[in-house]
Design brief:
about 220 residues; alpha+beta; 9-stranded mixed beta sheet; 7 helices
Length: about 220
């Protein structure tokens, strides 16, 4: 009986570890005692989409193992940086990486942390010796505002964020230029403008919203 209990305890520990790898800790605890749909509205959060530029071309040029190894190196580096700033990695979609701040009640400077994360992610891609040689770049979009966050699915569940803020960040990252960019909305700009150099704001057309003013973050001060 003791062996059976130990085996059961080991399996439970493995399950908890897996949940913590894919879900925020608070959500993971709720998943262990499910009581219907897990969903929360956050009146303010900051969301970042980061798309790798020129990665699609590599899918035809590199062997699958090398391609996935490269992507793993990049995303593992991003994971370490997100953990450094205490931010929530939401998901990866192909060669896109999505992060959010403000989903935890114990963090108040998440917008500044998202901006710092974006800056370091851009440098990581440009300077990491195993990545820089492929001449990749990042298009990053950041937006702040209300989001809905929760668990979607049953067997293959995901934790995701939804709403206009998410859509803005996603569209800000969608750019045809080859150079690395970090685009932020006005709310984000107002919160971090004292710590970064920005280009003059420009107006772009955003699907479902019309013309929106965006700011290009260039250099970190200090």
């Amino acid at each position: 009986l003791t062996d059976e209990r130990k085996a059961l305890s080991d399996e439970q520990e493995k399950s908890e570890h897996l949940l913590l790898n894919v879900l925020p800790s608070g959500i993971a605890k709720r998943m262990q005692n499910p009581q219907g749909i897990i969903a929360n509205r956050h009146d303010d959060a900051t969301v970042m989409f980061a798309d790798l530029v020129n990665f699609t071309q590599l899918t035809e040029a590199l062997p699958p193992e090398q391609l996935l190894g490269l992507l793993n190196t990049i995303f593992s580096g991003f994971d370490d940086l997100a953990e450094k700033y205490g931010l929530e990695k939401i998901k990866t979609v192909g060669d896109a990486y999505v992060v959010a701040g403000g989903l935890s009640q114990n963090k108040v400077d998440y917008t500044s942390d998202i901006a710092s994360l974006a800056y370091e992610m851009r440098d990581f891609v440009a300077n990491h010796p195993d990545v820089a040689k492929f001449k990749l770049a990042l298009h990053i979009g950041i937006a702040s505002g209300a989001v809905v966050a929760g668990v979607i699915g049953g067997k293959r569940f995901t934790y995701d964020v939804l709403g206009e803020t998410v859509s803005l960040a996603h569209q800000f990252a969608d750019d045809e230029s080859a150079a690395a960019i970090i685009r932020v909305d006005k709310t984000t700009y107002n919160r971090v403008r004292l710590f970064y150099v920005f280009e003059q704001p420009v107006t772009i057309a955003v699907k479902g919203k019309g013309d929106v003013v965006v700011y290009h973050l260039t250099i970190k001060l200090g």
